[in-house]
Amino acid sequence: MPRFAANLSMMYNEHAFLDRFAAAARDGFNAVEFLFPYEFRPGELKARLDAHGLTQALFNAPPGDWSGGERGLASLPGREDEFRRGIDTALEYARVLGNRKLHVMAGLIAGDRAGETQRKTQRDVYLNNLVYAARAAQAEQITVVIEPINTRDMPGYFLNRQDDAQAICAEVGAPNLKVQFDCYHCQIVEGDLATKLKRDMAGIGHIQVAGVPERHEPDIGELNYPYLFDLIDALGYDGYIGCEYRPRAGTSAGLGWLKPYLDAGR
User: Fold this and answer.
1) Which residue numbers are catalytic?
2) Alpha-carbon distance 251 to 259, whole Å?
3) Domains of the chain, with CATH numbers?
4) Helix residue ranges per DSSP H, the chain
5) What's the pLDDT at 114?
6) Could you tell me which of 100, 121, 101 has the C-alpha nearest to residue 109?
């Protein structure tokens, strides 16, 4: 049966961040994920997890200057030392929070019309940085995940397609490097989700969901999530499914779609 993690960066925004843990637990979630933990001390976050019986499923490594528009460092030439320091910081947090998955963002393609030479340069940097991240994470028994992101929400992002992400993981060759399969991003860029889940499940390390096209609850839009959840179960996925969506109104009021899964798990 699917296990769901509330994404506290996008859900429960009607509460202060540290209060979102309690709100998610009240609604029946037993796991959470979020983008970045670095505004808070790891012990402060761990205390919230423990107080409400929550598991930390995933968070992201430092992305560079997020407020300035950066969206990851892994493919950016000249930022390798900063990237490595960020991985070390992320692993320090993971040791405290206990998550076994770490998302590493690729970053944006340099220049508005970057050509093949620039893309190849960034790809080489990306692979070398992923080798470092996977090796460092392996010592902590943590899986690094990379996520194809659609170009509508994040124009210029370096990684957009599932097959490209799987090929990169194969080229790096680390057993703890996998793909983060976000159903929302995949539907916008490629579609044909069921076929891709069947094709790639062995290389998928984390799954996320949201309604398409507005990124609201997964009970509205063009994707048949009950079918996909059954398929994900049948394919043997045993990780958490991250609910990375923007609630249409109040978060709790929009969780009717989740109730059948919570009831089935009782």
Assistant:
1) 147, 244
2) 13
3) 3-264 (3.20.20.150)
4) 20-26, 42-51, 80-97, 116-138, 162-172, 183-189, 193-200, 225-234, 259-264
5) 60
6) 121
